Amino acid sequence: MVYILACLAIGLPLVSAVAFPGAVGFGSVATGGSTPFIVTNLADSGTGTLRDAVSASGRNITFAVSGYIVLSSALSLSSSTTINGQTAPSPGIGVMGREISASGKSNIVVRNLRIRQGNLDPDTGKSAFNMGKATNVILDHCSIAYGVFDSIDAVGAVNVTVSNSIIALPIGQQFGAHLETGPATWYRNLWVSAHNRQPLTKANTQYVNNVVYNYQAAYTVANTGGLFSHDLIGNYFIAGPSTTSPSDDWFQMNENQKAFASGNLLDSNRDGVLNGAAANSIGSAVVLASPWNSASTGLATLTAAQAFTSVLANAGAAPRDQVDASVVASVQSLGRSGAIITNQASTGLSNDGYGTL
């Protein structure tokens, strides 16, 4: 009932079912695909590959193989596509070396996929996942690392959810995510070691139970002239070795913004102990007495401290690989390790920093 009332309040279409059991937020309206397609090999192209699978709309994609797919060019998705990375045998499925693009597409569902762009991509203007001008998109339990332009580029995107995901170690611009238009939901994500944009959001936004570690600027609006509303509930910000100003947890929140901020914590002392204090001061934004979207309260089932425990245990693609294990370990140091990087090889992990599946 809360979801229905929220949809009516903001003009969203009502749907009889969400993208998958447990899907939340604005992107949960994504219908994905229904025609079965099984990925049977890890080649970049050809019959039975992921590129073959996403070349036609309406497909529901599962995996009979595990490992990395090394892309030689951007992977362009078709509309009405579901990618079920959780169906891959252990240790799971990932793509590396180029961008995945859902630009201009609609009804995209991506689950349990490792997306690792890195400097194998010669195009420094590409992002790890691009959903610019897309409609109805949900990324859930994905692991995105080594984004070159942004980890996630969503300029002009409508009805987006990014949930239960790890968004870490961007190189190049060192930015987490850039979303405009919206509305958008960022839910129970782990953001690690980015310079800025965690996310940059020029949209009406739900930002609930996220954990942000080793940031230079975290939740950002960038002094935009746009008039947007923000529900900021139960998030935990933790300073790390690269954090120059812990108070930039809410960054460039000007008087054009309206924000409801409740239950957020900031651990600024880098002492290896989780001991944050209240962090609900939101710059010069207009303070809302209640959430702008009534569904936000229903999403915020965890305190910030509970979110820290839950997100570190559950975010990202399962089972965790070398990259995600290293990222989570840096967060668990609570201020004592972690770095903002320019090249994935500097992590010292195998496979030139990409890790091995």
Molecular structure report:
It contains five helices and 26 strands. Helix content is 11%, strand content 32%. Strands 1, 2, 4, 5, 7, 8, 10, 11, 13, 15, 17, 20, 23 and 26 form a 14-stranded parallel β-sheet that branches. A ten-stranded mixed β-sheet has the order 3-6-9-12-14-16-18-21-24-25. A two-stranded parallel sheet has the order 19-22. It starts with a helix and ends in a 25-residue tail after the last helix. The protein has one domain (2-353): Single-stranded right-handed beta-helix, Pectin lyase-like (Pectate Lyase C-like, 3 Solenoid). With 357 residues, it is mainly beta. Mean pLDDT is 95; it is low at 1-15.
